[in-house]
Write the structure tokens for this entry.
Amino acid sequence: MEGIPTTKRATTGSLKSESEIEFLVNRKKNVISLKARYHWSLLRNSIRITVDSISETDSKDVVVTHGIHHVRKMNHPHCVQQVAMINTRQEYITTDGRGFRIFLEDGRRKANIIPEETMDRVIYSSQTDQYVGWQHKTDQLYLMEKDELEIISQVRTPDKVFLATYNSNTGEVLTVGPNFIMTIAFRYAARHLIPNKTIKTEFGEDNMFNMMVLEDTASQSQRLYLAIDSGVVVFNIHHGKMLLHKKDLHVRSITALTFFNPLKYVVTGALDGSIKVWDEKWHIVMVFVGHCEKVNALAVYPNGPAVISASTDHTIRVWNLETCDEVDRVAIAEPVDGLGTEQQYNIFYTFSGRKVDLWQLQHLYNIHTAIGHRVNKVKITTHPFFPVRAVLSCSDSSVRIVSPGNGNVITSLIMEQFSGLVDAAYAIAEETLFTVMGNGDIVKSLTNTNPCKVVNRWKNFQPGEICNYLLVYEYIVDVMVEGDIWEAMKRGATTQSLKTLSHPPKNQNRNRTLLLGGRRDGYICVYNWLTGDVDFKIEAHGSKGVLNLLANSKEDQLISAGMDNVIKIWRLYPFAEEALTPLMSFYCAHTPAHMSTIKSTLCVTFQDPTTATFSTVLYNLQDKMFGNETQNLDAFHNRFDHKPDDDHVDVITGLTVCRRMKLFASASIDGTIRIWNETNTLVRLLKLNVIPYSISFYNSKGDLLVGIGRHLFKIPYESYMPRAYKCKMVTMKFLEQKAEKPLEYDSNLINMMSKNDVKRLKNSRSSFKFDTYVDVLTPEEEESVNKEKAEKEKAFSVLFTRDDELKQLKKGDVKPRKKKFASQQTKDEAFKNYMKMFYDKPKITLPEDDLFPLDTVNDRLAASPDGDNDSYKPEAGPTGFFPDNLPPKSILKPSKPCAMPQRIVPGGFIPNSVLAKILYPTPRTPDSDQSSEYRPPSLTLDQLQQIGEFGIDTTDKNSPHRTVKFHRNDDHSNRVFDMEDYVEDNQSQRSSLPKTPSPTPSNKSEEDAFWGKPKPPPEQLPTNKFQGLLNQTPTPEPKQEEKEEEEEEIPVRVQKSPPKPIAKLISRPPITPPKRRAPTVIPTPSPPAVVSVRTIPTPASPRPITPLPDFITQFTDTEWFKQYFPSCSDTTWPKPWTADAFALSLLKVLRSTEFPNKTAISEALILLNVQEGFSDFTCQTAARTIISVLNDKKHVPISAVDLEKNFILTAIRALNCLSIKDKDFITELIIQYLDGDREVRSLVCDILINCGLQDSHRQLEKELDSWDIWNLEEEDRKTDLRVMCHQWLDRWMTSYKLHIEDTLERMKKGQNIHGRITKSQLQKHQTKAKKKGSAVSILDDQGTVTTLPDGTEFIPRPSEVDKTSQRSPSSSSRSITLMYNKLPDGNLTESASYIDVVNYFCEMMVEKEIESIKRGHSAHPVTKTTEKIQQNKNTVLVLPRLPRY
């Protein structure tokens, strides 16, 4: 030891100490590890009991049945009157008129309470957590606490309460009774009920509402729907007014009513068992027929767009609003009096008699995508770099590519409907779809357009080479985003050489996609991607053919099954010429119908209908014992079976696998879906009560897509997944599935398709989905709601704070910190402030007495004269029929003595149309009566010479725009002449309209164009610069003195903007003032320069080449213009360039083009008429052309086809815009009404009303609906209808003329006639009288001013006025005597129009009904014959016309 150095000994000691420390540290770690393992094992053992119990429970509850299941019955000693659901506490409250009973969610009774007052109705206030009860048909409502139902307040209503509900959006109680609707608010910390708003109605106790439903929205447009008899009345609660009253919605009375808020549908049920669905515009959406008796109750289904109904036929049914059919039904022992549901709550209640039943909704599947045809196969893409998509093979030979996340149809391949689709394969990376048709052809199409674009069709000429199955094998090596790179490299090494891996070519994609097919001759083929040729084929299953192919890309394997009952496993080499090499094969006892795999586990479904074998078996393909080519797997233990009772009992339609959860699912025609685990154990049996034709998992959670009926449905994993699997999912991560949007429709591809194919394409769509629906409010409404909510919260907080302080003061918890003693100063100040309340009030002063009141009144009248007589005043149009305020020159005394006036006194009845025709005859034409129309004066030769001296060159085509203002002594109206240049075309068909380079800005609105308001006659438009001046009549020249006084320079405005195309004469109607006034100058907006008229203008530059007018070039970008006018330019377009010539060209195209183009051209004609205006010849030609197209025998447009319906609506508007209101126009409107749907009929009625139809009682509609048109032949239908319309119009025209002649004859003989004319019926005649400037106006006792024709004398009857003065304004009337100085012209019948004839018919029908009512009989007495006819009509089913495709 002495020889060892000191440093060496120190080093050895330090190493020894370090090793000891390391040993201690390791031992400490081991101890901690052992403790952790022990604790983890203890934790696992502690929860194992729970896991085992959950698994045991799941094994017992294997069967899950879709539909309605009875849960519990709650009996009562008396008949139940009402049931309410308290959603916040999950409780039910019932009342039987003697007490309240509260039940828990599972049906156990919680409390039995007898109230202080008798009540048999109750509603729950969710915002205040209180109850409101009342006795039916009483006027008292009681507010009750939530616990003991103690009454804390009451309120009285104006009358008996029949109906009441709680408005959760406003926090008010809504009550309905005879002649009132009242809202009651909760006030004073919800301790009192205070009436808020009362709406008076016209519905009393005799015609009272029987049910109500409230729209669930916070908007100010919230509507209340009330059912009465066979109609519905709608009220706006916020504004307090009735919106409409829809009658005759059902044949019999409405007995059930509900409102589906997400789609804004009103659903009504009737006494006859029918259920109808109405949209916001009260168009019927669908009708459900299934109940045999009265529908007692309706409610919104908690899951999906559906309603649930109960009927006296002892059934409860569920109706889907999207598939339009019955989806569920349950039979009950006795009829249901009422039912109630809550959204997103799977328990609902029904009550009848003395019991309340609770029902549970086991809702397994919801509609996911509406297809319209049966889905035979569902395939899911598995590419890791692209979103998951579902490929649906449908029975109509179409393929739909759907986004499983939201159900949107991304694109579709529409093939011939009866061509037969065998199979489809989708390569998502290449956006390519392959389909096998029934004749063996393989169709290749691209999926980047909607619909899919077919790029190739590989013909097949050998029946034995037809493919039974197509498969896209995707070999993926390049991992770009995520995945196991090492595993990908190992897979690549098995199929490629090491040299290729070590030196890969640049820019080479190592992924590969192969198209494989199993043929009928037993071969498996590899097809060339581009040409469709067979690159490689190998015999697999003999002559019986290949039945199924399965790609196991994780193991680079291909599995095939054939009709020879053999399953073969192949090794696949994607880059080799011989791509397939057999690995193993095994024989099966039955035919393998479907296959699916998880890594090395293969699931096969076998079925043999002859032996009723429909089984599911699992195989382990990884075992080494499968090295031989053919072995019987039944001899080994690598096969997993189950007991036969778990198998399907009918043909298996599909098999799918969820690899993440290790579950298999099989579907069968027996209406069940069975879920199997990795050991082939049945874990769930789903009874759907319908046939699932296809099935597939679409995500790793276990959501299923199932083809049921004609649509694709979704089964979420929450509805069937065992709880043990749900517990596993808590610790698992799942990628969110991307929801894709549909591709936009390619118009070029759609135009190449037939109408039926377009309909099939657009019928596929995603279903309507909602969890909780809240209306979207406008920003103003949302701000108002938030403001009101904030104010309420603030007020409530103040009240709560005050109540707390009062409680504390009452208990003595609050004490003043410092007691303040009152001093003498504070007492005096308080006394003064108290006395100020009485003495410091404003003094009331009386005005001074006026000693001379008459002078004061005269001074005030002189200070405010009636107005300047010199100022221009527009004529006041007539606003009534017999006014009271007369003009200064009274018509009661005629200014001239008249020879033997004819007196019209009340006597026999004449229709209003006849009386209006006599009082307001149609004005004569300008040729027959020149004094009836104003014409501007023409210039004399001296005046023209003076204009020539101004230096205005009429031949200068580039002269600037000038505005010349003339003032004449004998004419006090101002005339403005817009003198502009244009190129006059001798070839124009309309001499009054010059050719214009651009469209004239029209002062005619679109509404005027739509309703066909009259436009200025063509002859009033000047054809050159001075045409308006030349048309004036000569007038005498004024005296020289006056001429010198009034002579002044006339300013001329030089405008730099481009000239207007058409010269217009704007004149004001002549007014005769009492005195002459000085000429005024019309202000012009910022004129650039004002020069004297006598100045000579500077020479103008040459005029440039005139371009095409804007009324032509505005259509150059439209499709129809490009199609029929491809080479449109100023050099190629034929002249004349007028709107009439262009319109005639469009009419030629209109006869032969398709309906979409016809609609667009009709709209263009409307726009041209609005912008330019047509001549009478063009308007008549256009009207005849449109009517001929509407009645084309080769292809008559019908309303059942959308494209043709659009043309019909546009054509009717165009006819109305052309203002040719002749017999053919009225006839065409009637024909379109008879053959049209609701929208066409509504448009026809609107046009007739605006043309002057007065039919408040809808007599014309009743008449047209009574015509027997169902027996007409389709070929001559339009002709027969036209003949019927002409005969009807001619018959009533003859009657109308005879009535007028008879009335005139009676007037000549001095006989008495009488009539009833209202203000609304004479609006158009008053307008005509206003235009004629009649000076006779009368004001009746209702405040309506009416203009009478000249020569009519008005004599009031004061005695009768006094008699009727006590009546209401609506019923007050006046007996009037009219004195005629001159009898009306006998040629009145020649000016009768057909709209007058229709009005005459309506008035005669109304008068007939009035006379019948006066006699005490109904308008349509029911005899045995009519009753029999009516019964026969009720038994006839009238079907709509089918559209042509």
The first strand starts at residue 63 and ends at 65.
